[in-house]
Amino acid sequence: MNDSHVATPTPQTPAELEAMLARALGRAPAAPTEVGPVDVPAPAPVPAEAQRCGFIAIVGKPNVGKSTLLNALVGHKISITSRKAQTTRHRITGIRTEGATQFVFVDTPGFQTRHGNALNRALNKTVLGAVTDVDLILFVVEAGRFDLADAKVLALLPTGVPVILVANKLDRVQRRVEIAPWLRSMQERHPFAEFFPMSAKQPRDVQRLLALCERYVPQQPWLYEPDDLTDRSERFLAGELVREKLFRLTGDELPYTSTVVVDRFEHEGGLRRIAATIVVERDSHKGMVIGQGGERLKRIGTEARQELERLWGGKVFLELWVKVRSGWSDDEARVRAYGYE
Q1: Is 120 annotated as a binding residue?
Q2: Region (G3) spans which residues (predicted)?
Q3: What's the number of CA atoms in the CB half-sphere (13 Å) around residue 257?
């Protein structure tokens, strides 16, 4: 994080705006900065005086693809994803080092406007904390769309920090000719430094976004080792992957207030022993998670264990329990105890 930003001025004239639109829509050559493929070998040592390092916050309302984008930018899965709103509940830091530049991406929960319980207040506090001291903000929306929830997030962004409008899910837009006028209307809402229509599932788009972000990264020593991917612990990642499988395998049946708490995480040689509790608010929710004959809980555990073994390259023994804690999501003490600050 740095007080000085390496950035181009925000467009002020119609000609500058049209040039920015041309770049965004691919009608002008991109800057001659290219990044390598997603999986690259460890870079050669870079002297500290030549290093660049910057914090880049990824913000937006729920379900616009922030976590998918983070995983694509880092090149590895470090943030869980599902169709359920509020899947991301923590500030997740993803690290990618390319050449002399270290990108520190900060994924945030979607800003919550529908519920005012203690859990959502904690999530919104996380969002606000993430955007106050960064070098660049990626404001993620669905391409061609902008609603009140988007506007509420946009209103939270600080002045003085460059913001790139990332128009995600471009592959879902049927009439591409409508994107240019939509981008012009977006510039009237906020003086964005750049527009970037893309699909986070397209590697070429991700590489182009990395090249654009690099222009805003200040010169300063790296904060992490070049092969680091995140600052989160294995214990944290275990709980998150169980929660991902929980959400994916229960669909819309299970309320968003369910969570996962890791009770035990131990190393025994190459084996990791993990015990975790799925916390729900009602007995009926417990039945949804367990499923007929315990089949759903067994599947949640199996899929989580298999993905953890692929992630760490070693054996995992995973035990799962389900407990009912009525009203926990509106209990400040329990929200903190479950790891939401």
Answers
A1: no
A2: 107-110
A3: 22
